[in-house]
Amino acid sequence: MSTDTTLASDTAHRLKTELRIFDCDVHPVPQAGLVSLTPYLPAAWRERFARKQAVHDGLNVPIRFKHPNGSVVRQDARTPEGLPPASSPQHLVADLIEKHEISGALLNCFEAGGLLSVQASTEESIVLAAAYNDLFIEEWLSVDKRLKYAAAVPTQDPVAAAAEIRRVGKHPQVCAIFIPLVDLMMGHRYYWPIYEACQELDLPVFIHVTGIESIFTGTPTMGPGTFDGYLERYTVIPQIGMVNVNSLILSGALERFPRLNFIFAEYGFLWLPSLLFRMDRTWRGLRHETPWVKKPPSEYLHERFLFTTQPLDGPDNPLHMQQLIAMLGHDVICFSTDYPHWDNDMPGTTLRMLSDDARRSVFYDNAARVLRI
Amino acid sequence: MAQETTPTRVGKSSDFEPGAIALVEINGREIGIIRLQSGELRAVLNYCPHKGAPICKGFIGGVWQSSGPGDLSFDASQDVLVCPWHGFEFSLDSGRELCWNKRSRLRFYPVHEAEGDVFVSA
After folding, report:
1. Is A291 touching B (CB cutoff 8 A)?
2. N or C: which end of chain A has fewer CB within 10 A?
3. The domain B8-120: what is its CATH number?
4. How far apart are CA A191 and CA A177, in angstroms?
5. What is this model's ipTM?
């Protein structure tokens, strides 16, 4: 019942605005977790994972960080046969793309993010990244041209990551490179081989919350100590976005890689005005410490970054939301659903207070500027 | 430039060396006298257009330049006044902030030298 109501509302609104929609954050999963990767693993590695009974079909976090309702995925998004949400490309196309008249979606595998950042060893992460990428290219991208993919890389070895980018990055539906972050700020030279390969292939860097930050050693950390639960940790994840915008700009990495763009998924965006005011003001006074930052930090942000809209925070008053986005500029945000996760935002109920021009930018044009869609 | 008034003698020419800022008071205004590298003098109101700091208690700096991360060079040929509070840099040539497109600028007063003395109209 509620699905039908949402659908009707979506359609009516789109007809009014003739809105094209690209969804920048969708999470497919291999149907049987790591077991589904088996055909894509070299024989010796297949044996290794079987021997150690490696099963990874979710975040595998300690219980204090488990979602209070049991799962981060919407149980209503299971397939009619009862398969896990977003585990079938045909069902995802029907349930997301067709139902909401979305013209394309950027897939990134959430589970791969956690594994490749720290949950798998360095050597394991290299073969797993290749297996994930091969699986999604072969079993998903071939199903529908509207499906695009952010190929995942083994961040623990930047040289291997660069090689993986060059191996899969020329596929026409590979539109971005997903870097699962480790505990180094993104402006650090450690990442340069990855950035070099991305720039060479004209692919933007895509980063996404991995769900294990500040839970496992080696992940980006947020504050001292241990969070007490899912909610307490979830609410401050924007810190990671903030730290990395700051680092990328002030390190000079954007001057070193002048054609490289960045998409930050699920870190929010309403904190940006505050950060930019501080960055610009401090740069004005202390820029001689980083003379390789050649213009006000806010200029780099508008030229080189996009932030996904979901999870959409904001004031209840739509006028205040309009003002906040006007303060930031709608050129730096791009629509995302985060399907099939629990906190997803669907197009018919997202940022309806914006002008038609702004909605066109946010729902399609900004993504089209950065992604080859 | 401020409206011209009767010039006030503020010292001997030899009192003002490049790289130093000498503070004088004229008609209730604190003014910094600065000799540029070219030998020319500037008389600058001791007031930062950003937040009102006593900017002439800052320092004279050059300009750091870079071709990219890690590469650093220093251009000492430019006369730049750096505020002691927030560090904003102002050109002593134009009075404008070096790297920000802001309309506010340093306030300069007419200054001239005659027979070994320095005079400021403020």
Report:
1. yes
2. N
3. 2.102.10.10
4. 13
5. 0.80
